[in-house]
Design brief:
This protein is α+β, with helices and mostly antiparallel strands. It is built from four helices and nine strands. It has a single domain, classed as Metal Binding Protein, Guanine Nucleotide Exchange Factor, Chain A. Strand 5 and strand 6 form a beta hairpin. Bound molecules: zinc ion.
């Protein structure tokens, strides 16, 4: 019962947070994804766009529990716990389950909700939408367009140019720094 209440409360906050355009000054450096954790995930790819159809039983063997719970059981991570929430690093966000490209860092904004937020996906087919009527609310669920993993929800209270707010669980995202940004970062560090 307590757990259910917690989930309802979490879902409620996820819906009703408002965005601000203030830029975060976090200097947190996000390391590139750990390739070792994909060792037994044969479908993970940043280039293969073929649809993935893997059962939850199989995913359970492959994915870390925290990713499985959100991606496959449609859970919600606790707010303000994602290393990506305040990140301003330049690069691309991928699905942590299958590697599908989802969002560009230049569409990311500080929504103040506690979850990484974007105003548009990287392409029309990178995500899919489903009506979600759980917890007495009507929301639009966002899933990965390649592997149909649960990512989060989209709301129409986002900033220009789209007015949309993709409220995404950071645990189901992988981030890869843009190559140029990486080079610049290394150059700066070398000379400082
Ligand atoms: Zn995916």
């Amino acid at each position: 019962m307590i757990k259910t209440l917690g989930i309802i409360l979490l879902s409620f906050t996820m819906q009703y947070c408002t965005y601000s355009q203030s830029q975060s000054t976090s200097n947190q450096k996000i390391s590139n994804m750990d390739s070792t954790k994909k060792a037994n995930n044969s479908v993970y790819s940043h280039t293969d766009q073929s649809k993935v159809n893997v059962s939850n039983d199989e995913w359970k063997k492959v994915l870390p529990k925290e990713i499985y719970d959100v991606a496959r059981l449609k859970g919600t991570e606790r707010p303000y716990t994602s290393k990506f929430e305040k990140s301003n690093d330049i690069g691309t966000y991928y699905c942590a389950v299958c590697g599908n490209a989802l969002f560009r860092s230049d569409t990311k904004f500080d929504a103040g909700c506690g979850w990484p937020s974007f105003y548009e996906p990287i392409s029309k087919t990178s995500v899919i939408y489903l009506e979600d009527n759980t917890y007495g609310m009507t929301r639009t669920e966002v899933e990965c367009g390649r592997c149909k993993s649960h990512l989060g929800h989209v709301f129409n209270d986002g900033p220009p140019p789209t007015g949309m707010r993709y409220c995404i669980n950071g645990v189901v995202l992988d981030f890869e720094k843009a190559k140029d940004a990486e080079k610049k970062y290394n150059e700066q560090n070398k000379h400082s």
